[in-house]
């Protein structure tokens, strides 16, 4: 994919979106549990925002951790405000759960979905852009992946096997196509052969933007539960600047082959460099979290 191909934004002039040369300055951080990185790349602005809470709080959820990335589309306001507010919204909602260990998955899913919808209603009061999201809640017994849009999360083994993954919300996905058509929406192909919903978004779910019909493009996450057992070694969540040019298996092997002798933030830095070589044109943000 060249820098002249727009994937995740509304149709606009490429000159408005891209630099003449990529900005390769990286924000990097690492500790004994996780690594983080973000890089602007070819885009004129970095529209990715992130939030982590470790521990999730200092009381009932002190044994939990939360990691999230919000991938802004056509601006930064939704992603920035969602990253700022998501922890508060989730903790308020989780007060309804009776236990932080033996969790009813149906109740958990219902609470998380309602929380994102409530956050979206608040954001739509003042934002005009929109954002995708990939997040993870990590508890003593289970790992939860929560996604809206085309940022992605994977859980991998020590030897680089992909154990679990989120599914992108894109117009090319049959399930999403059927849902959109049932709600009266339309999928069209843009001039650069990218499928778009309502001739605007290249994703089928998003936070923000009051101009979007939320029956067609809802802020409704999918949630995956995976046991925190001996097979799960690393969680990787990343914005679509990574996944546009590398698939799950490639990223899993890239990380696992370096994990034994490199800091996690250094692995992320090298991953960004590789994605640039593969002609990623988008912002890139990622967390790698140790699970064992």
From TrEMBL:
Highest rank taxon of the organism: Eukaryota
Xref: Pfam families: PP2C
CDD domains per record: PP2Cc
Residue span(s) of domain PPM-type phosphatase: 33-291
One term of GO molecular function: protein serine/threonine phosphatase activity
InterPro entries, sorted: PP2C (IPR015655), PPM-type-like_dom_sf (IPR036457), PPM-type_phosphatase-like_dom (IPR001932)
Protein name, entry field: PPM-type phosphatase domain-containing protein
Organism whose genome encodes this protein: Rotaria sordida
Classification lineage: Eukaryota, Metazoa, Spiralia, Gnathifera, Rotifera
């Amino acid at each position: 994919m060249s820098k002249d191909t727009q994937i995740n934004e509304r149709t606009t002039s490429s000159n408005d979106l891209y630099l003449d040369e990529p900005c390769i300055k990286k924000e990097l951080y690492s500790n004994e549990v996780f690594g983080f990185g973000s890089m602007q790349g070819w885009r004129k602005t970095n529209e990715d925002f992130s939030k982590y809470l470790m521990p999730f709080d200092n009381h009932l959820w002190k044994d939990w951790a939360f990691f999230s990335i919000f991938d802004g589309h056509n601006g930064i306001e939704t992603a920035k405000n969602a990253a700022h507010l998501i922890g508060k919204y989730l903790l308020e909602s989780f007060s309804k759960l009776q236990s932080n260990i033996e969790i009813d998955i149906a109740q958990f899913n219902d609470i998380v979905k309602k929380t994102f919808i409530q956050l979206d209603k608040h954001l739509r009061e003042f934002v005009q852009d929109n954002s995708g999201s990939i997040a993870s809640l990590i508890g003593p017994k289970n790992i939860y992946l929560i996604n809206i849009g085309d940022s992605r999360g994977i859980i991998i083994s020590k030897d680089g096997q992909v154990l679990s993954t989120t599914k992108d919300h894109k117009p090319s996905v049959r399930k999403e196509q059927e849902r959109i058509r049932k709600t009266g929406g339309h999928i069209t192909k843009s001039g650069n052969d990218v499928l778009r919903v309502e001739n605007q978004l290249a994703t089928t779910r998003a936070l923000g933007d009051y101009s979007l019909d939320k029956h067609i493009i809802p802020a409704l996450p999918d949630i995956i539960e995976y046991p925190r057992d001996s097979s799960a070694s690393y969680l990787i969540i990343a914005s679509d600047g990574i996944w546009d040019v590398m698939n799950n298996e490639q990223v899993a092997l890239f990380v696992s082959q370096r994990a034994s002798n490199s800091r996690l933030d250094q692995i992320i830095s090298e991953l960004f460099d590789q994605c640039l070589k593969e002609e990623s044109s988008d912002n890139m943000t990622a967390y790698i979290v140790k699970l064992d």
